[in-house]
Amino acid sequence: MNSDDDKFREDAPVVQNIAVKDLSFAYVKDKLILKDIDLSVAAGEFVCLLGQSGCGKSTFLRLLAGLERPTRGEISIDSRPIEGAGLDRGVVFQDYGLFPWMTAGENVMLALKQRFPGRSVDELKSVALEKLRGVGFDGAVFRKLPRELSGGMQQRVAIAQAFAVDPPVLLMDEPFGALDAVTRAMLQDLVSELWAKHEPKKTVFFVTHDVDEALLLGSRVVVLGQSPGGVIFDCRVPAAGGASRSARFESTEFVRLRETLIRHINRDVAERLSRDGLFARGAK
Ligand SMILES: Nc1ncnc2c1ncn2[C@@H]1O[C@H](COP(=O)(O)OP(=O)(O)OP(=O)(O)O)[C@@H](O)[C@H]1O
Ligand SMILES: [Mg+2]
Known about the structure:
By secondary structure, this protein is an alpha/beta fold. It has 10 helices and 10 strands. Magnesium ion is lined by residues 57-58, 173. This is ABC transporter ATP-binding protein.
C-alpha cells in the first residue's frame, strides 16, 4: 500500500454484521413487495441476489442503502438500525451514476472529497489517478467526460470510485446489466479481483439476473421468490474469489450448485405462471 492509500484509509468505518430481521416492505399500503425476510450477513461476504424481475431486489438494496424504511421488521448494521444513507455503504447502479458535466477524474475526486473532507486538491487528485490506474486506465481517462467513454469504461470509473471511497459495504444493482458479454466478463473479473485482494474484505450485495454471474462472483447466493419476495434459497459458494473462471465453471460442486439454483428459480417461475393462469392460456 502506498502512502496516499494510508492517508485515505485511516478512519475507515468498520462493519461486522448486517442483520435483516422479519423485514417486510410496501411502497403502497397493503401491497407488500418484500415479505418476512431474515438474513444475517457477516463482514466480507459477497452476497449475490437473484430473483425474477419485479420481485423486489432493487427495493431490498434501497432499504440497505437507507433510501427506504422497512414497513415491518428491521435492518441493522452491528445492532444499529439503518436510518439513512451512510459512509459505511457505497452504491453502484446500472446507469453508472457519474455526473455528466465532470470528468472521470473529477467524479472520483468529488466522491473522495465527500468521504475525506480534509484532504488537499493535490492529494485528492493523486489518489483519484491512482484508483483509476488500479482499474486498468491510463492517465488520459482522468480528463475525459463520461460521454466520451463507453458504457463499460464508465462503469469501470464507477467501480474505481466505489473502491476509492472505501466503504466496508458495497451495494451493486445489476452494474453490468447493460454491457456486452466481453466487457461484462472483464468487469466481473475486475470486481472479483478487487474484492479478493482488498483487506479487510468488503461486504457486497450484488443484484443480478444471471445465475452464472452470481456463482462466479458470490461467496453466497440468495434467491428471492416472486413478489412479495421472501428468501427461497440461500447457499454458500465454494472457492469464491480464488479459482479461475474456467476452473470454477468446471468443478463438480459448481455444476451441481448451478443446477440446484436453476431448479429453484424455474420452480418459482412455474408457480408464478400457474398462479397468473399463463400456462392455461398458452396451452390453448
Ligand atoms: N418507487 C416505487 N413506488 C411504487 N412501487 C415501486 C417503486 N419502485 C418499485 N416499485 C414496485 O416494486 C416492485 C419491485 O420493484 P423492484 O425494482 O425492487 O424489482 P426488481 O426485483 O429490482 O426488478 P428488476 O429485476 O426488473 O430490476 C415492482 O412491482 C415495482 O413496480
Ligand atoms: Mg431492479
